[in-house]
Design brief:
Order of helices and strands: HHHH
Number of strands: 0
Distance between the termini: 28 Å
Number of helices: 4
Shape: elongated
Helix content: over 70%
Radius of gyration: 17 Å
Length: about 140
């Protein structure tokens, strides 16, 4: 694959990933609070399954392309504080790992039924904030 193809896949996956989080946090959650509990209980599991199905594929593309794009810079990352570029790239990688950590925590919290609707909302808010910070780092890497 060419660099342009990998970069395009990475950007499109990032748009889909952040768009999904944006929709969940700023549109779906507030709208669902206005629905009757019976309606929420009926559509919640269906939407959740569909979102998980799509986001798993998107995450594979996003992280796979991201790893491919970062690979040429691995020698620079040996000294992550050597330049603004490596600081931002290191921060971007850290944020990506924190996002993975959110999802791992979510898996365990859902399995043990230790997270409710409110907890899911705040987890999604945190994911959205991390993802937006990651995009800011990515857009700043080649400018600063």
């Amino acid at each position: 694959m060419t660099y342009l193809t990998i970069k395009t896949l990475h950007l499109l996956a990032a748009i889909a990933f952040i768009g999904t989080l944006f929709f969940q946090v700023l549109i779906l959650a507030p709208a669902s609070r206005r629905l009757a509990p019976a309606v929420r209980e009926a559509i919640g599991p269906v939407l959740g399954r569909q979102a998980r199905h799509v986001i798993h594929f998107v995450a594979l593309v996003l992280y796979g392309a991201g790893l491919t794009l970062a690979w040429p810079y691995r020698t620079l990352l040996a000294n992550p504080l050597s330049s603004t570029f490596t600081i931002l790239l290191s921060l971007k990688i850290l944020l990506a790992f924190l996002i993975i950590g959110h999802y791992v925590a979510l898996i365990f919290l859902r399995r043990g039924r230790h997270i409710g609707e409110r907890g899911m909302h705040w987890l999604n808010v945190s994911l959205l904030v991390h993802a937006v910070l990651l995009v800011v780092c990515a857009k700043s890497m080649f400018v600063l």
